[in-house]
Write a structure and sequence with these properties.
Number of strands: 5
Radius of gyration: 43 Å
Number of helices: 7
CATH architecture of the largest domain: 3-Layer(aba) Sandwich
Strand order of the largest sheet: 1-2-3-4-5
Strand content: 5-15%
Keywords: Initiation factor, Membrane, Protein biosynthesis, Transmembrane, Transmembrane helix
Organism: Streptomyces nanshensis
Structural class: alpha/beta
Helix content: 40-55%
Number of domains: 2
Order of helices and strands: HHHHEEEHEHEH
InterPro entries: Restrct_endonuc-II-like (IPR011335), Restrct_endonuc_IV_Mrr (IPR007560), tRNA_endonuc-like_dom_sf (IPR011856), Type_IV_Methyl-Rstrct_Enzyme (IPR052906)
Shape: rod-shaped
Protein name: Translation initiation factor IF-2
GO molecular function: DNA binding; restriction endodeoxyribonuclease activity; translation initiation factor activity
CATH class of the largest domain: Alpha Beta
């Protein structure tokens, strides 16, 4: 009696074990995991410096993982979890960028406020000399320096004007009721040209000048800046003193030009 033999279809049978195939599969999985781990590690290290690039790398890796796992039984749950993780990473990256932007905004220097007018009469004598030297430097006398002190022979500030002339300045920090007199101007006039070689001689007084002092200054070609002239110069309302000495073309006939005093710019 013949015994029928039941043949199993190819689909119903189990494929025979293949060592080479299994080894190759494990190697491929290990390679994918290693590459993904290295990419994640590099993205994690660069996240502090380049958060946007890190987010993009993580997004690409997550997309690749979704492609590999989409045919698995729990692909939907895994995809949802990965999507939530991706959103969390993106939100963290955006939050970091916002924080960095706020930090940069806080680090920006505030716009400069308009400087209050300087009360030169409230400065001590040395600070007043420094303030006058700073005005000279501001308007182009890069080498302006304070030289006042014992034995200065009347020169408190020395400088070279932008057009190459030598500027000699004497600073008188006087109170409102104490004006520079003719003796002050005479002492300065005796040294500013002969000793210091001035092309431009300037006296700046916070208390103003007496009439005899202004008359002497006019005769000797000395510029006199009182509190009004100093304020106008300091607040950019007037040109620097050395510009006041530049001769402009005259339309008056020779010998009939009007006299221009040196006490005003």
């Amino acid at each position: 009696m013949a015994i029928p033999i039941r043949r199993h279809g190819v689909r119903g049978g189990r494929a025979p074990f293949d060592l080479r195939r299994t080894t190759f599969g494990f190697a491929l999985v290990a390679l994918v995991l290693a590459g993904g781990g290295m990419a994640l590690r590099a993205a994690w290290r660069s996240a502090g410096r380049h958060p946007v690039a890190a987010v993009l790398v993580v997004g690409l890796l997550l997309a690749a993982a979704l492609l590999v796992l989409r045919r698995r039984r729990r692909a939907r749950r895994v995809a949802e979890a990965v999507t939530e993780a991706a959103y969390a990473i993106v939100d963290a990256g955006i939050a970091e960028l916002d924080a960095a932007g706020e930090a940069r905004a806080r680090a920006r220097p505030a716009p400069p406020e308009a400087a209050d007018p300087v009360d030169y009469a409230e400065l001590d004598p040395y600070a007043f000399e420094e303030a006058v030297a700073e005005l000279c430097r501001r308007d182009g006398c890069a080498d302006a320096e304070v030289v006042g002190g014992a034995g200065d022979l009347g020169a408190d500030v020395l400088a070279t004007t932008p057009d190459g002339r030598r500027l000699v300045v004497q600073c008188k920090r006087y109170g409102p009721g104490n004006r520079a007199g003719s003796q002050d101007l005479q002492r300065f006039g005796g040294t500013c040209y002969a000793v210091h070689g001035a092309d431009i001689a300037l006296v700046v007084s916070t208390g103003g000048f007496t009439e005899p002092a202004l008359e002497y200054a006019e005769q000797c070609g000395i510029l006199c800046y009182g509190p009004e002239e100093l304020a106008a110069w300091s607040e950019d309302g007037a040109p620097p003193p050395w510009d006041a000495t530049e001769e402009a073309p005259s339309s008056w006939p020779p010998g009939e030009e009007p006299t221009v005093p040196f006490s005003a710019p």
